[in-house]
């Protein structure tokens, strides 16, 4: 079990030295993807799971090689269930739906799940369960109309293949964690697991929450900590204007931010989150999809006696103003439109900073990486041929739990 000692939890930037990060080593939930369900489960292909695991292990090795403590979501979940009966009950309640299964089958399945080991329960809640896999000992199974009328390969509990993208289901700001509110049905249940981990795992005892009254969708991939007190929130396919406003007001109330930039992004899959088109690579620099460089704008939400909104104005200007710097450097990847579009699709702009000027990036985005290096950024590359089929890069696949404060 992870010890409760460790570096100061939380983060106030995208680039402070990374001390602890939460990843999810992909597992059986990826083996659930088929050509018929992959669209709905938000994957663009069927990853070769063993190879995806190898790529992910290599990603984790790069981080540990740089002194970063890697926590794995699956381990944390198992440890949470080992230490808390309440967590087990809550996890089961969030996964077993009487609406889908009917009251009797749902009740019997819940009883069976309560008897599982912590390890097995964690696996079922991540990988889901088909009707064929339901324990026959669940008293009502054979006599259940629901069981008999479902195809055996259908899901009684949906799998969560996008757990891989730990960035989206929670994030840290200041010394607090925030559980997000995911927009799409395929991902909604993920937050029930991150919520349990932060609420019950011994490592996080006593840590406070940010953004408690989440009413509208906010996803972590849209939240960029530009500087202490300054947050950018992408508003597009996932995070809604209502989500961005609710988050801003909550961060102001808790003194976790003084300025929030709401950044409209095109509502399409290629730019599902702000971090698919722009990530920070240094205290004053971002890498950005060149096609949007001139058009990206921001509304600025200011805290104060009454919350006010100004703009829109160009994002880089609004960001520099809020951050109190002369200029936000946009590292010009200078790519032709076709290469830029290909590398953006393959998460070339989705970098994870380990420290100011040091990032992890997919190796396949050769041109983007070369331009980053030309601008003085150290780029540590990882393979993502299989990991990338879910449309997420190093930033999407990581939730910084502890960064040195700037
Ligand atoms: N922050 C991110 O951009 N995360 C990647 C999420 C990919 C996932 N397949 C999704 O569509 O939600």
Automatic annotation (TrEMBL):
Its EC number is 3.5.3.6. It is an enzyme of class 3 (hydrolase). InterPro entries: Arg_deiminase (IPR003876). One of its GO terms (cellular component) is cytoplasm. Keywords: Arginine metabolism, Cytoplasm, Hydrolase. One of its GO terms (biological process) is L-arginine deiminase pathway. It is found in: Cytoplasm. GO terms for molecular function: arginine deiminase activity. Its main location: cytoplasm. The active site is at residue 396. Pathway: Amino-acid degradation; L-arginine degradation via ADI pathway; carbamoyl phosphate from L-arginine: step 1/2. It catalyses: L-arginine + H2O = L-citrulline + NH4(+). It comes from the Bacteria. Pfam families: ADI. PANTHER family: ARGININE DEIMINASE. HAMAP family: Arg_deiminase. Belongs to the arginine deiminase family. This is Arginine deiminase. It comes from Williamsia limnetica.
